[in-house]
Design a protein that fits this description.
Helix content: 55-70%
Largest sheet: 2 strands, antiparallel
Subcellular location: Cell membrane
Strand order of the largest sheet: 1-2
Pfam families: BPD_transp_2
Subunit structure: The complex is composed of two ATP-binding proteins (LsrA), two transmembrane proteins (LsrC and LsrD) and a solute-binding protein (LsrB).
Strand content: under 5%
Shape: globular
GO cellular component, one term: plasma membrane
Protein name: Autoinducer 2 import system permease protein LsrC
Distance between the termini: 22 Å
Length: 313
């Protein structure tokens, strides 16, 4: 049994076991197609892409932090702050760069607090979450405002009959691949998360850990920009669910929360699984309370089979 648990948890692969989630996803697609007549309709599939795009963006960012044995609980608040900034009555050439500048600042604060002040990532990012949420409510106390036309166009329009959310998904995967497999940065993240000897081999572990938190916040800002264009307003609470959902998607795709093991394809599969689950439960008219409970049970189950030497992540 222990040997089987090790195999299922992906202990022997740097990329984790993403084949099993892929099989579950394919089975889920078949099951939903049989239970819900509208599941395979073009409109529902396009809606599925629109639901998956922001979660995929924030989950890829979350994965970068998890690889270095961290967690970022501030991504949800960063999403909300982005929608609030973009919805201000000002030029988009100021608000959009301003939102990403805020994301870089948040990532730096998270990273420096964890690396330099030795604060646990959960405590550090949870504290930053409260600060960001307070600023967001100051900027946009209630949902409203106007989103620049360029943002709504990039989210709602079609190109050659293909909805823009599909291109956002491709963008997210392309950025994730570039960071993980097209640069030394990705290799360094695996090395840092794999043990405490990365620094001995000349890898700037502290700098790269901080950069992982910065990249995570920037991905969250991209997700916020997408959501702002989709709902055409700013919303101080729209990002609430994404912190837990992104961690669930990352873990579901085979990334070890203890660090050093994970893959882009696994995160994509985990995101699709969650999007399929939410879409299917909506089609079956299950309540939001049931959906939240199901996601919580999935996260608990996935973490329970991950190998850990001691209590903790």
């Amino acid at each position: 049994m222990a040997h089987l648990a090790d195999r299922l948890s992906g202990r022997y692969s740097r990329h984790g076991l993403w084949i099993l989630p892929l099989g579950v996803g394919l089975a889920g697609i078949v099951g939903l197609a049989l239970m819900a007549d509208d599941f395979l309709s073009p409109q529902n599939l396009f809606n599925l892409a629109a639901q998956a795009a922001p979660l995929l963006l924030v989950s890829i960012g979350q994965m970068l932090v998890v690889l270095v044995r961290g967690l970022d609980l501030s991504v949800g608040s960063m999403i909300s702050l982005t929608t609030a900034i973009v919805s201000l009555d000002a030029s988009p050439w100021a608000t959009i760069p301003g939102a990403f500048a805020a994301a870089v600042l948040v990532g730096l604060v998270n990273g420096v607090t964890v690396v330099r002040l030795n604060v646990h990532p959960i405590i550090a990012t949870l504290s930053v979450t409260g600060i960001i949420q307070g600023i967001t409510l100051f900027v946009r106390p209630v949902a409203g405002g106007t989103i620049p036309e360029i943002v709504t166009t990039l989210v709602r329009e079609e190109v050659f009959g293909v909805p823009m959310p599909v291109f956002w998904v491709v963008l997210a995967i392309g950025l994730g691949w570039k960071l993980l497999h097209g640069s030394r940065f990705g290799l360094h993240l695996f090395a840092i998360g794999g043990g405490d000897t990365a620094h001995s081999f000349g890898i700037p572990d502290r700098r790269n850990t901080i950069l992982a938190f910065v990249a995570c916040s920037v991905f969250a800002a991209l997700a916020g920009l997408f959501l702002a264009g989709r709902i055409a307003s700013g919303d101080p609470n729209i990002g609430t669910q994404y912190a837990v959902d992104s961690i669930t998607a990352v873990a579901l795709g085979g990334t070890q929360l203890a660090g050093g093991v994970g893959s882009l394809q696994g995160t994509v599969i985990g995101t699709v699984l969650l999007a399929l689950l939410a879409n299917g439960m909506n089609l079956l008219n299950l309540s939001a309370f049931v959906q939240t409970a199901v996601k919580g049970l999935i996260l608990l189950a996935v973490i329970s089979i991950q190998p850990r030497k001691s209590i903790g992540l």
